[in-house]
Amino acid sequence: MVTDAAWQVHRRLTLNRCDSITNSGTYYASCGCTRGYRGNPYLFNGCEDINECLERNPDGSGRRWHCRDSDTCVNVPGDFRCVGDKTGAILIGVGAGFGILVLVGGILLLRKFLKNKRMSTRKRSFFKRNGGLLLQQQLNTKEGNVEKTRIFTSRELEKATETFSDNRILGQGGQGTVYKGMLVDGRTVAVKKSKLVDEDKLEEFINEVVILSQVNHRHVVKLLGCCLETEVPLLVYEFIPNGNLFQHIHDECDDYTMIWGVRLRIAVDIAGALSYLHSAACSPIYHRDVKSTNILLDEKYRAKVSDFGTSRSVTVDHTHWTTVISGTVGYVDSEYYGSSQYTDKSDVYSFGVILVELITGEKPVITLPDSQEIRGLADHFRAAMKENNFFDIMDARIRDACKPEQVMAVANLARRCLNSKGKKRPYMREVYTELEKICSSQEVKIENDDDANEEEEGMDMIDIGIADSWTIGVTAPASSIAASSSLSDVEPLFPRPTW
């Protein structure tokens, strides 16, 4: 007989189940192990857990307790649990995710492909429209000229200029922008991007690119190539690091570097470059926009002539071009205004203005202090020479540290270059030779030019009338002046009216 208290303890310890039975007034305990346990329920810890996962049927045909083939049996106290296989679900999830990624990736790749195809088609269209096929044909016919002219891709120049970043801008003007670029081979270049293009003149532009690419002179900025895959063709030049002559002449703080010796050497460099273009190049080339902003200086203050946006080559049997007037106010001679015929002597006149800038330090268009009259520097210089007031207009920054005889000799040469009659102006090769002699000689014989003294007779003074607008494009002789851009080293690659 087990007491009631003892029975409760025994029940907890043996995990059994007991039922009380009454027989003739006597109580008996009928015990058994609970479900999932087996053993002797009357012993302490007599019932033990059954591992259903290992139990087999009595006939040995298999496990008595089993799960589906796809599940795993896990034993727990008094029971077992079937855990489903998650591999299939994982595979389904991974497969679905991968499928979505493939679909999205495919859509993105398709969009990129279509975009690249459109861009490629557009580039080919621009290349063809801008004369790329003609340029390739011209280059193929020029023996040994493959390395001289290069056709750049738009991607190359975008990479070189950081997609034409504002941080890369070297200069801006009314007609275009110049960017500093770094090619993959390490060369630094200047990339000129114009705002305007004259589609009717593209064939002439290509011809000029071919001609200018053959120019090889140490004082001429080298044209390295062009890009025709953009809406407006891009020109690629060698990079000159020290700005332009206009900036240095008219910088009041730059009185040390621009001493007379440096200025004279610059004049010799420019004259040598123009002489080469006029007579020594493969085809004579007239620059048509010679001015101080188009004269670049390297780190040693040696000059390089740049910006051939309006230049033209001529055949040996031609002496001039009859064109719509182009150029910059203050640099264009009156004879060109009247005849519209641009000759090599027109470049000579513009160079004469640069000589006067070097001597006086004045801008090509000035305002007279007394009368507030706006006047061309060339006219002001000729008047001072005629009245023997030359030294009054000389740049004070060079007056005390120059050789007066040299300055006077250059002034007389400038006066001859500024003769109102083109035929009486010297050729650039003569100007170059004379400047070389002046530069190398210790004493210079000063001679007065009778032709220069006569030039004022019958000469019409040109009323500028414009102070803030410098570049002009007019039809001579009976049209008005149209101001179109500012003084800048950036000029139109395809001037609308100038070809």
Task: Describe the structure in your own words.
The chain is an alpha+beta fold. The protein folds into 3 domains: 4-83, no CATH class; 123-239, Phosphorylase Kinase, domain 1, CATH 3.30.200; 243-499, Transferase(Phosphotransferase), domain 1 (Orthogonal Bundle), CATH 1.10.510.10. The chain is built from 15 helices and 23 strands. The protein has helices at 4-14, 87-129, 132-141, 154-160, 202-213, 245-249, 260-280, 334-339, 344-360, 377-386, 390-393, 396-399, 404-417, 428-440, 450-454; strands spanning 16-23, 26-33, 37-39, 47-49, 71-76, 79-84, 150-151, 169-172, 176-182, 188-194, 223-227, 234-238, 285-286, 295-297, 303-305, 312-313, 320-322, 325-328, 341-343, 365-367, 374-376, 471-474, 483-485. The strands form 9 sheets. A 6-stranded mixed β-sheet has the order 7-11-12-10-9-8, with helices on both faces. Strands 18-22-23 form a 3-stranded antiparallel β-sheet, with no helix packed on it. A hairpin with an 8-residue loop joins strand 22 (471-474) and strand 23. It is rod-shaped and about 155 Å long. The termini are far apart. Residues 1-14, 314-323 and 443-499 have low confidence and may be disordered. One of its GO terms (biological process) is cell surface receptor signaling pathway. It catalyses: L-seryl-[protein] + ATP = O-phospho-L-seryl-[protein] + ADP + H(+); L-threonyl-[protein] + ATP = O-phospho-L-threonyl-[protein] + ADP + H(+). It is found in: Membrane.
